[in-house]
């Protein structure tokens, strides 16, 4: 799994490339948590365009980051989800909890200036 | 479809979960399954193998996970076995959202159940857990020449 990181004020954008399973999930968790703790990141945007695979370990880390950000007044946003990945996410009920956007621009737009 | 049998044994380390997925994807390709079916098989195998490593062996790396694939008639049988700690209450473990770890979703068995035609879990404390999953597929018609 490769992570491309972009930080703009208190927003962390992560473009994830690869497979999200129990092996890569801990790297993703660490990458997000360290930015929340070190830089006080409050909005995390995950671009899943190049994610080829996800299972419950991957979904667990995403849900875990949402739960971590919530009491801090933060937000987790997901963009560019490929259809076969969305199917798995839908079965897990994740889209009922977490906000999905078609692209990064829409994710940045929502909540800006509020 | 000719019958076929493959057994893969591997160390209980996270890196090997993707190897288990590669194997099931290749078998799915040989059986002419749709990309969607192959994707679902990959998730089911990933969940079963992850459970064996994380729960069966408590993430201790020097243990062996057994993945057994069998094609018989129109059925693909996948068996994932560990010789780990076992599950004390299989029925409870298979409930949606049941998890021993707050970072995990407790969806492993839900995914296995949704994506396979049959799921059977046998477990004995201190002996291990065997997950048997079956998927029926359409036979490829025999070519005329």
From TrEMBL, chain A:
Gene3D superfamilies reported for this sequence: STAS domain
Task of the protein: In the phosphorylated form it could act as an anti-anti-sigma factor that counteracts SpoIIAB and thus releases sigma f from inhibition.
Keyword Mitochondrion: no
Name of protein: Anti-sigma F factor antagonist
Family under the similarity heading: Belongs to the anti-sigma-factor antagonist family.
InterPro entries: Anti-sigma_ant (IPR003658), Anti-sigma_F_ant (IPR014237), STAS_dom (IPR002645), STAS_dom_sf (IPR036513)
Keywords annotated in UniProt: Phosphoprotein, Sporulation
Pfam families: STAS (PF01740)
Domain STAS stretches: 1-114
Keyword Phosphoprotein assigned: yes
UniProtKB/TrEMBL annotation, chain B:
Gene3D superfamilies hit by this protein: Histidine kinase-like ATPase, C-terminal domain
Keywords: ATP-binding, Kinase, Nucleotide-binding, Serine/threonine-protein kinase, Sporulation, Transferase
A GO term, aspect molecular function: protein serine/threonine kinase activity
Alphabetized InterPro entries for the sequence: Anti-sigma-factor_SerPK, Anti-sigma_F, HATPase_C_sf, HATPase_dom
PANTHER family per record: ANTI-SIGMA-F FACTOR RSBW, ANTI-SIGMA-F FACTOR RSBW-RELATED
Domain Histidine kinase/HSP90-like ATPase, residue spans: 36-139
Name of the protein in question: Anti-sigma F factor
Catalytic activity: L-seryl-[protein] + ATP = O-phospho-L-seryl-[protein] + ADP + H(+); L-threonyl-[protein] + ATP = O-phospho-L-threonyl-[protein] + ADP + H(+)
Organism this protein belongs to: Desulfosporosinus lacus DSM 15449
Lineage, highest ranks first: Bacteria, Bacillati, Bacillota, Clostridia, Eubacteriales
Listed EC numbers: 2.7.11.1
Pfam families: HATPase_c_2
Family: Belongs to the anti-sigma-factor family.
Function text: Binds to sigma F and blocks its ability to form an RNA polymerase holoenzyme (E-sigma F). Phosphorylates SpoIIAA on a serine residue. This phosphorylation may enable SpoIIAA to act as an anti-anti-sigma factor that counteracts SpoIIAB and thus releases sigma F from inhibition.
One GO term (biological process): asexual sporulation
């Amino acid at each position: 799994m490769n992570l491309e990181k972009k930080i703009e004020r208190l927003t962390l954008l992560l473009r994830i490339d690869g497979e999200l399973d129990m092996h890569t999930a801990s790297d993703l968790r660490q990458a997000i948590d360290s930015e929340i703790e070190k830089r006080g990141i409050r909005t995390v945007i995950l671009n899943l365009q190049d994610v080829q695979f996800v299972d419950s370990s991957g979904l667990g880390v995403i849900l875990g980051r949402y739960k971590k950000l919530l009491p801090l007044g933060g937000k987790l946003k997901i963009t560019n989800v490929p259809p076969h990945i969305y199917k798995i996410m839908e079965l897990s009920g994740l889209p009922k909890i977490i906000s999905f956007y078609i692209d990064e621009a829409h994710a940045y737009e929502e909540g800006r200036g509020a | 479809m000719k019958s076929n049998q493959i057994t893969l044994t591997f160390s209980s380390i996270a890196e090997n979960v993707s190897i288990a997925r590669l194997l099931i994807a290749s078998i799915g390709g040989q059986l002419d399954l749709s990309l969607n079916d192959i994707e679902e098989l990959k998730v089911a195998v990933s969940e079963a193998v992850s459970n064996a490593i994380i729960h069966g062996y408590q993430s201790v790396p020097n243990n062996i996970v057994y993945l057994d694939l069998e094609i018989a008639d129109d059925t693909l049988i996948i068996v994932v076995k560990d010789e780990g700690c076992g599950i004390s209450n299989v029925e409870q473990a298979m409930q949606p959202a049941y998890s021993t770890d707050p970072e995990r979703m407790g969806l492993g068995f839900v995914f296995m159940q949704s994506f396979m035609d049959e799921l059977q879990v046998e477990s004995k404390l201190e002996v291990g857990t065997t997950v048997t999953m079956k998927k029926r597929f359409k036979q490829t018609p025999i070519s005329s020449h």
